[in-house]
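seq:
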Amino acid sequence: MRKFFTDVRVFNSGEKAYIAYLERTCDILITDLVMAQMNGIELLSLVRHIKKEQKIVAITAHDETEYMVKLINIEVDAFLQKPLDDRFFLQTLYTLCKELYEEKNNPNIK
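struct:
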């Protein structure tokens, strides 16, 4: 990720990620759904309450309907399954970056 972005923060638990997010939000939040202390669904639900327009990519090895319904309700921007397809992952990031750029440069887009 550091090849493409200057500010990359990595956390090994949802709780640590949430505390860091409270201190400083980010443009794109990429999270696994299975993490220690607080899972990705809990993290994303809390983040949505803080920043409704947050760009979110959820990653998991699971494809259970229960996860999908929760992610749809949270309104994630992308859902990726492990193992990640590098090209699809990069395309997803490109799309989100393009949306962010357009939103920042044209305030009428949302």
